[in-house]
């Protein structure tokens, strides 16, 4: 349903040429939760921008539902790492969540309100409707960003290291939130992280990226039980085996490049 075929991205300008992504091919099935993990600077953000139609690839295609992505497609929503910059500080929480829905001209005000209510409830922020983002903790702000993305009712949710800037406890809570939202809404999720444990904990599948210029180094099916729990899942010997395997792959990619 989301297909990436032979994607390459070269940045060119001012006498400098950086091949960020060399040749990426993978498919995301409808309703799947896949994680992309790779070393810092390997082109994860570049890839997501190409998927979201924000950046034109140098070669290859991105197809959503069989249609080539050339501009931000209506069926996609993004959550970035920098929640502080992605929310408007002068808008209250509910208005931040409602803002993208206003682009859907055919949608009634009543429907917009229902979606805002539902998505804030989904992320556990019903009580924070009237707050401004700067009155909330980092973790709560990221919940608002997630609520805004899901209110849009996307087919595909792209998340770019969304929890890199929050503390460990909040991060664990937000990971569980992503799994719950995914299960409740049946949305397809592509979650990008440099954290191997996070990728294994969240994903049904993990795509391991090589160092830049990037290719898919390996794809692993994470056949851990669907009901995941921060304590029991992480203590499962298979969890440890997956993270060791991925760690080795990433180390191998670094050595291959050196
Ligand atoms: N606008 C740009 N112009 C030129 N080079 C760029 C540009 N954006 C990214 N790059 C280069 O492309 C490569 C991949 O960058 P990108 O930000 O996609 O990686 P990343 O995996 O998301 O990094 P990190 O894990 O550190 O967030 C890097 O070498 C980076 O310097």
UniProtKB/TrEMBL annotation:
<dbReference type="InterPro" id="IPR050166">
    <property type="entry name" value="ABC_transporter_ATP-bind"/>
</dbReference>
<dbReference type="InterPro" id="IPR027417">
    <property type="entry name" value="P-loop_NTPase"/>
</dbReference>
<feature type="domain" description="ABC transporter">
    <location>
        <begin position="2"/>
        <end position="236"/>
    </location>
</feature>
<dbReference type="GO" id="GO:0005524">
    <property type="term" value="F:ATP binding"/>
</dbReference>
<dbReference type="InterPro" id="IPR003439">
    <property type="entry name" value="ABC_transporter-like_ATP-bd"/>
</dbReference>
<dbReference type="InterPro" id="IPR003593">
    <property type="entry name" value="AAA+_ATPase"/>
</dbReference>
<keyword id="KW-0067">ATP-binding</keyword>
<keyword id="KW-0813">Transport</keyword>
<dbReference type="InterPro" id="IPR017871">
    <property type="entry name" value="ABC_transporter-like_CS"/>
</dbReference>
<protein>
    <submittedName>
        <fullName>ABC transporter ATP-binding protein</fullName>
    </submittedName>
</protein>
<dbReference type="Pfam" id="PF00005">
    <property type="entry name" value="ABC_tran"/>
</dbReference>
<keyword id="KW-0547">Nucleotide-binding</keyword>
